[in-house]
# Entry
Amino acid sequence: MKNEFPYILSHLSQDRLKTFFLILFSASYFQCTSAINRNISSITENEAVESETTVIQPPDNDYYEKNYIRFGDFDYQNNIKTVLFNRIGWEFSTPIIELNTDEKLEIRFDDLDGDFKNYSYTIIHCNALWQPSDLAEYEYIQGFYEDQIRNYAFSRNTRTSYTHYHFVFPNENMQPILTGNYLLKVFVDNDPQKVVITRRFMVFQQNITIDASVKQATNLDIRTTHQEIDFTVNTSLYPISNPYRDIKVVVTQNARWDNAIIDLKPRLVQGNLLIYDYEDGNVFRGGNEFRNFDTKSLRYRSMNVETINSLPNGWDIVLKPDRNRRFLRYTTQSDINGQFLIKNDDYPDDFLEGDYAWVHFTLPHEKPFTDGNVYILGKLTNWNQNPSNKMEYNYRDAQYEKKLLLKQGFYDYQYALLADDSDEANEAIFEGSHSVTENTYTVYIYYRKPGEIFDSLIGIQHINSNI
# Structure
């Protein structure tokens, strides 16, 4: 324990140090583990982890540690693949439900070990910036605080064996009773510390109205490359005394959280109207339409597929080489805004008979970047930048390369550069950026009532650019 003190202390704020020492002197270190986890959410049995990190941008995009829990969309084990989390009946939907309605979410995932494991899940309430709320479970959960995943089935007619797990939420065993941000945590062997999946979802009540629009950026310097999201919030049916203090606004592009605009303040308040009309604070790069490929069938080549190779225990798919689109003119192209669809044209069951294949990506580039790394970006990589989707440079062929193990379906993707001195990946380096690109934006309005210790989600508005 003596040698662990510097490590633990370096991960705690001044306020949390007080809590740590109070607990430390009341019992032995190992006996206090659960209490420390409860109060500061940052110490595991043998090490400390940061809980104050917002998932909008992790502390280091290449960072990975076995016991490090991220309050964002992350898969912690290599055997877990193809995690789907959406509202029932709409595959491309963001996991959002309205409180006290019949709306349900469903989560699906595959375990490539192909055996049975005892998976369970719980939910954690978070504030507007995706940090854990200071709430006890009974304050936001009705029913059990943990529940087992009982629905599973083994794959069939596939060369890659896997077990497919599935459940619907909320259900009779667990329901959220507060609005706001939540983190779904899936773990194994009834041990909440053995986390395998975390996913964001939101619960809301539409107490206010939002009038939003998307246009080319007003700022002439970025007018041709960026899109501006202006909106007005009407609180006439839900009075708010101090919107500058009590309201937090988050705007996302294509359901991404890695480039979200957070904590935007109203530029003007006119009675019950909160006006968010800026020239710089509310702009996104327009980006470009997503690249895509189709592996719904392994019997014939489809969109962007160059070769399909049969292996004794799997499949190998080589995509056509991509090219840098930075200086190309914008062209309209159908896409699904960075999402993916699991679909199998070879057999009737998409989820149990869809096979896995190693998909090879190549991006020719004259020389490697010395001040950053190149990543494959999209829902297929959870919009994250980590070693699992970092491309390697092939000096012989002068190109970046990467292979991903993916289930049959239709996938959108792009390439992005994460500079060493930046915490936000830049896809415009390879994709270009145009103010006329089709994108979907979502405005989230959070409200913390005076005296409360959590953020309620009181309004959501989706809007498509269609410029």
